Amino acid sequence: MEFSIRSMRQIFNSNTEKRISEDAAQELGGFLDSWAEEIGFEASEVAEEDGRTTVRAEDIKKVLRDRKDRDIEQSLSI
């Protein structure tokens, strides 16, 4: 999946009054694409562990909760 520059501009503009350059929009899109790929992979592993071939919203939520917990633990150990 690839996020378009236009989509990145729309996301950015809906949250701020600032403009975003094409390079910045590409960078943001690349980051989101990579992040979504990682989340999708981890969620598919959760579904597989539960004996399913379909990733559910609950799998995505579990991955995001687990990542949040890991991020908090890492920030506390700094």
What does this structure look like?
- With 78 residues, the protein is an all-alpha fold.
- It has three helices and no strands.
- α1 packs across α2 and α2 crosses α3.
- The longest helix has 28 residues.
- The radius of gyration is 16 Å and the shape is extended.
- It starts with a helix and ends with a helix.
- The model has no long low-confidence stretch (mean pLDDT 88).
Feature tags:
76% helix, 78 residues
| Helix amount | over 70%
What's the alpha carbon Rg, rounded to whole Å? 16 Å
Secondary-structure element string:
HHH
Strand portion: under 5%
- What structural class results from the helix and strand content? mainly alpha
Kindly state the number of beta strands: 0
Identify the overall geometry. extended
Unreliable runs: none
pLDDT averaged over residues: 88
SS element count, helices:
3
Distance between the termini: 34 Å
Major sheet description: none
Task: Write a brief caption for the model.
This protein is mostly helical and 78 residues long.
Helix-strand blueprint:
Elements: H1 5-15, H2 22-49, H3 57-76
Helix pairs in contact: 1-2, 2-3
